[in-house]
Amino acid sequence: MTTSTYNDTQDKGGRTKVRPPRIFGILREPVGLVSLLMIVVLALLVVPPILILIQLSFADIADNGAIKGYTLAHYSALFSGAKFFGVLWTTIVFAAFATVISLLFGGILAWLVERTNTPFRRLAYLTAIVSLGTPYVLYVMAWLFLFGRTGPVNQLYHWLTGNTGDLLNVYSLWGMVLIEGFLWSPLVFLLMSATFRMSNAEMEEAARMNGASVWDTIWHISLKLARPAVLALAMFVFIRDIEAFEVPALVGIPGDVKVLTTDIYLAIREFPPNLGHASAFSVIMLILVSVLLYFYGRISKHAERYASVTGKGYRPRPFDLGSARGIAGVIVLFNFAVVLALPLLALFWMALTPFIAPVGWTVMKSVSLANFIVVLTSPSYLSLATNTLIVSITAATGAVLLTAVCGWLAARRKPGGTIVDQLATMPLIFPGIVLGVALLNLSLRSPIPIYGTVWLIGIAYLIRYMPYGMRYSYNGVLQIHKELEEAGVASGAGIWQVLGRVIAPLLSPALVAAWLFIFLISSRELSIAILLAGPNSQVIAVSMFDLWQNGQAGELSALGLLWTLLMVLVASAFYFLERRQSAKTFG
Amino acid sequence: MSLTIVKSCAVGGLAAALFIGTAAPSFAVDQALIEAAKKEGTVVWYSTLIVNQLVRPVAEAFQAKYPGITVKYSRTPAGEMALKLQNEIRANSVQADVFDANSAFFRAMPLENLVEYKPEAAAHYPDDLKDPKGRFTAVNVFTMATGINTNLVAEKDRPKSYEDLLDPKWKGKMAWTTDLTPNGPPGFIGNILVTMGEEKGMAYLEKLAKQDIAKVPASQRVVLDQVIAGQYAIGLMIFNNHTVISAAKGAPTTWLKIEPLISTGNYVGIIKNSPHPNAAKLFEEFILSKEGQTVFQKASYLPADPDVPADDPSLKPKQGGYKATTITNEMALEQLPRWTEIYKKLFP
């Protein structure tokens, strides 16, 4: 561990002090107090759910839900038979291929948009933002409709070939891989485009001047430079895919494809809900994902070495793709069509028809706006929307404030930074429903009457999405040169001043991106909301789940589309304000 | 989650009772109960019914009848509802007064947690729809049928018996929910075992397991939607009223009377130590009264009150002239674990 310049200059005598042992050091330096504070806050948020999870996994649970003893039965049930390893293998295949699709798709797009003169750049951003604001259930439902047995894709295939068989069976491992891959490509796009935007183009330009072709430059320079960032991101998406819940349930179960989370899903749906089995499964996942997180941490450390931004000013020149510009345009348009336009059109179709029907003229007669009218005139949706906005804004703001400081501590290797990073990343592994059960338990025992309020849901989302905030701010801090902080300290600023007046403004683009991401994505999470919502804290997600469960696909689609529209409007307003603010900061 | 499905009918008689006198039948809700409920001012209802079809209409009707008492509701699938209530009870912090759910829910909610209260409104309900001690009463009933896509299943091919479902031409073309309640596969299995007997029944189920029935991880309604969309030809364990609702909108679907069908219930009950015990009783009286039951009828559900017909009367066994195995709450409590085990073994 190196002593940072910042800590040394805090020494009142003005001399460089020999660094004290780390444990004591944490308390002696002002920055150590900040670390300690963050560790305490994070531990309070993260550790109790883990403990409850572990407790449940060993618990012998009575029918009324009380714990009547402890047992290893849940674990032995997991490992009995070869099934577990088969499921584990399927999970790894699913997560690996889905990650590859997200990375290829999102990564190529990010590079094109940030580094080249490809057309339709704005469309790519629009696609990412809108698709992040669309709840999973809707998104998956749209995909299943598009690729289902009677969906337009197979219909077109029948019409073109005269075959009656199916071109593709979406209820399969490959269907799951595709949908999950598309689902997360916007996240990859947003994170990668930040990397590409901030990294220095000098080396690429040097290669080009020395006669390297566009493809050589991409292969030898752009990709090599981005490798640590890509690897870290790949690991992150892989972990996310391992704990994915929606696609395995909605696509995998009908197709008889089982992954680890399917078992959790089915166990929770037994009567009484088999929490012990689900928790044991979750603990195994926790261990699995912790191992991955360890490697993830190592990759992230290397990422710093590749940082190419120095204090020097630069302005990257976009690649001229030349004749390949058309191809690039097609890729951007393809992304727009596949990730956004087609699913939204499918939803629109479902919202207009009184029952789910194959696309065709015969159904056209019954097309109506009735579902939209129901949603717009229903008084209950107004309060649901208000509650949901409170929850999303609380979660996004809380997570960003917290992770801005944590990201800085971690990226600058401050004392305790590693612990902070580990703690803030851990919630990535809780399946939503497990976190929900843990918080249900805790809130009912809490002296503060938080059970049944929207704040409880807000806190749950904060915990759940903290890891994403962490990624944004960590990467953001890495790209800010230390000398600016040091200048602040040299001019007599204290730690909070440095954080508030130097780091925060410079970090603002990353923080805004993080805020937007969490804000958009938190209304997608259904499983937590269903467990935690009470009569006074109903949120949109509960309604959506309700409509989905009860097959009101038309109204669900209408509600989903209107909701997505609202989210995009809020997001755009926020984005616009930030742009103006950031223009002031950066001049 | 399975309980979701349960929404049906219960509400009949009491509402009428509330009308104290006039057109209403012989009984009336005690004025003292109304006063006590008004003092509490609120009733909290955890429901598995569909919000815009039933929860809100019932709440509105109740509030119109008893101004000053607000109905607060939380719509939760039964599995989550069980988790929530179990935790509330253990933490001694019960938030809900009254709930409705199907039989599977009661597996996770021991009856000793429920208030013994025999609603007057349900006095004339048949015994198999209520607990002798009054801890639960059916608010609506369901008939579980076989739903088909009429474009994909020709008139002459329509299965007429359970044996017909074993025809190789239906292999991979049937679907059912993953709902582990009497309204899902366990109920189907129970019906087969009760009707055919253990030995023949198991032999039948083993053959059925080879038909590759697709599992849809959502409600029976979603299964039917996928049948309507053509993803599958036949849906097993479909609510018969759903096919009628969809057919009225022009969807290519109908229900088959493969006998015996399965009849199940959705039950209301009151949680002990709840914050508004009197309002809970008043609400239960209302939802089981004629007035309350009419809301279910209007929503095309099957009212539990034997005197309130379904809006399409043929949906109920008696008026529809079909045989159904009634799975009572007691029977479900006793047999559900076994049926579920068989399901998990044969249809993994």
Task: Please tell me about this protein's structure.
The complex is a heterodimer of chains A (587) and B (348). Chain A has 587 residues and is mainly alpha-helical. Chain A has 2 domains: 1-67 and 375-587, MetI-like (MetI-like fold); 72-368, MetI-like (MetI-like fold), CATH 1.10.3720. Chain A is 73% helix and 1% strand. Chain A is built from 26 helices and 2 strands. Chain A has helices at residues 5-9, 22-28, 30-58, 73-79, 83-115, 121-132, 136-147, 152-161, 173-198, 202-209, 214-242, 246-252, 260-268, 275-303, 325-352, 361-364, 370-377, 379-411, 417-425, 432-445, 454-478, 482-490, 495-522, 527-532, 540-549, 553-586; strands at residues 59-61, 67-70. Chain A has a two-stranded antiparallel ribbon. In chain A, strand 1 (59-61) and strand 2 form a beta hairpin. Chain A starts with a helix and ends with a helix. The relative contact order of chain A is 0.13. Chain B is of the alpha/beta class. Chain B folds into 2 domains: 2-141 and 264-315, D-Maltodextrin-Binding Protein, domain 2 (3-Layer(aba) Sandwich), CATH 3.40.190; 143-263 and 323-346, D-Maltodextrin-Binding Protein, domain 2 (3-Layer(aba) Sandwich). Chain B is 39% helix and 18% strand. In chain B, strands 1, 2, 3, 4, 5, 6, 7, 8, 9, 10 and 11 form an 11-stranded mixed beta sheet that branches. In chain B, strand 1 (42-47), helix 3 and strand 2 (70-75) form a beta-alpha-beta unit. In chain B, helix 3 packs antiparallel against helix 11 and helix 6 crosses helix 7 (198-209). The longest helix of chain B has 18 residues, at 329-346. Chain B is globular, with a radius of gyration of 20 Å. The two termini of chain B are 18 Å apart.
Please describe the structure with a list of short key phrases separated by commas or semicolons:
heterodimer, A: 587 residues, mainly alpha, MetI-like fold, two-stranded antiparallel sheet, 26 helices, 2 strands, disordered N terminus, B: 348 residues, alpha/beta, D-Maltodextrin-Binding Protein, domain 2, 2 domains, 11-stranded mixed sheet, 13 helices
